[in-house]
Amino acid sequence: MTARIIRRPAHAGTFYPAKREDLIKAIEDSFLHPVGPGRLPPRETIGGRIPGTIGYVVPHAGYIYSGPVAAHAYYDLALREKPDVVVIAGPNHTGMGLGASVFRGDAWETPLGLVPVDNEVARLIVEYTEYFSFDNEAHLYEHSVEVQVPFIQYVLGEVPIVPIVIYVQTLDVARDLGKALARIRSEHGVDLLFIASTDFNHYEPHDITVKKDMIAIDRILDLDDEGLYKALEEYNITMCGPAPAAALINYAKSTGAPKPILLKHATSGDVTGDKTWVVGYASIKFPV
């Protein structure tokens, strides 16, 4: 009998609480925070019947920093009809594993329980892309995908995921993934929700970060993936997940989706009060 492959939490107790009850409180505090939506998602509509999104850009820092901004995306997601699968792509901060790594296994574990992995959708992503391969090493200690999973569990309950970690964040890699997701949606009839996990400008004063972030965000809102990459280089914007965001842009464009909507932008300084040295965060909705 083959042993089950379960990715154990690597950042419970650091990026978010390790105990179930504390984690639920941290998620709910993110929703209730002044920088957050200011209210909890109505329980009667969680995983409800309102269609209208193919994906979100969501930040991935510790919950005490980016949780309130992330909560705007997850509040909106809570009102959506439950998707068939949630594909989550984040940058590779550790340098481990391959350049573009799709997780293959049975489940991911968080303090809220196990989340199944959709290995058929994972297989199709690898089949339909040029740059992506199965590789679990890149996922062992990476936080950019892991921190999204408890929020997904809270708002959607049990829904299968496909975790992806990207180290080689070129525009070609991003377009490769985005077009594959659109193909899976159209050819296989999969209601595929895509979470692009990224933070924006890093470790500059609040005012500078706000200006830099809005340059990048404006490119995303215009569905301009090439313009996004050019802006990051021209203005030295240290956005850590351009490829996940550009993949979402291409997924949206390939499905004919309308322009995205900025739900919330803030910096870590808006949460902590220390605006001397901040990181920028945004939640952006991609409607159908």
Could you characterize the architecture of this molecule?
This protein has 10 helices and 12 strands. The chain has a single domain (about 5-285), classed as Protocatechuate 4,5-dioxygenase, Chain B (3-Layer(aba) Sandwich). Strands 2, 3, 4, 7, 8, 9, 10, 11 and 12 form a 9-stranded mixed beta sheet that branches. It is an alpha/beta fold. The longest helix is centred in the middle third of the chain and has 18 residues, at about 170-190.
Radius of gyration: 17 Å
* Largest sheet data: 9 strands, mixed
Shape: globular
Counting structural domains, the number is 1
Output mean pLDDT.
Answer: 96
DSSP strand (E) fraction? 15-25%
Sheet/helix structural class? alpha/beta
The CATH homology group name: LigB-like
End-to-end span in angstroms? 43 Å
- The count of strands amounts to 12
- By CATH reckoning, the class would read Alpha Beta
How do the helices and strands follow one another from N- to C-terminus?
EHEHEEEEHEHHEHEEHHHEHE
Can you give the helix content as a percent range?
25-40%
